[in-house]
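Raw record, unedited: HupE/UreJ family protein
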Amino acid sequence: MHDFPLYFELGWQHICDWQGYDHILFVTALCGVYLLTDWRKVLILVTAFTIGHTITLALSALNLIHINTSLIEFLIPVTIVITSLINILKKKRSPGTIRTTYILALFFGLIHGLGFSNYLKSLLGKSTNITAQLFAFNLGLEFGQVLIVLSILTVSFILLNIIKIQRREWTLFLSSAIFGIALIMCIERFALIHFR
């Protein structure tokens, strides 16, 4: 497929684009409270998010579901606010908390997939056979997501193990900063929702 490199590149550039930083904020809130030694937990979390956004990305790009775009643009920062708030409120991560986080990552992935699909549909135009492009774009998204997760875990490692910041302090700082940014996004985007 000659379009594969193009759509793969568009996928990873889309998720790593600082102008659409809401997805970066979500992945940071989701994974930034973990350590490099928690890589299995992070892998399961990212996989749950991936499954969620792959489902809705495919369904929406293939025009099988239609959701109000302005509502999705509002719900994306809501997912960031909730994820950050969970990080702030939970002092210890019990197995039950971790399971809940996996379920939320899957559910929130469904919402983010709808956000990705709007961008993908604008690229595809009126194309009808989009399976190969959809696959390449999704792989690109995953590649970009892995880059973000590795960057976050590396920064956490440096701060916690070399600079010796307390893990709880780092969690509170990171999650509170992301919470504040996402809350402002929620307020701004709520005013833009067009109910039909």
